Amino acid sequence: MRGDGRHGMLRRQPQGIVALVSDIRLGNGPTGWDVARHVRRVSPDLPVIYMSGDGAVDWASMGVPNSIMIAKPFVMQQIIVALATLLNSGGPFPRI
């Protein structure tokens, strides 16, 4: 990731982090796709949940394996179900 310190917590093995939940569009800089790929290099088994209003069509080609895409708008229960699915199963995981 960038060397400006904004993503310093992603440079080493995450301590106490059980999953990554990220929007696809994060403004200037890395995308949610980029963040997930980087996190998976550091922690290959960390569950990844993407959310997007328009990036869902790119999930198959851009998303990391064994991740879940949730299309916006969504309700909080969808995040909870997705997280439970990732934490309790070995994948592959569907789009919710």
Automatic annotation (TrEMBL):
Organism domain of life: Bacteria
UniProt protein name: Response regulator receiver
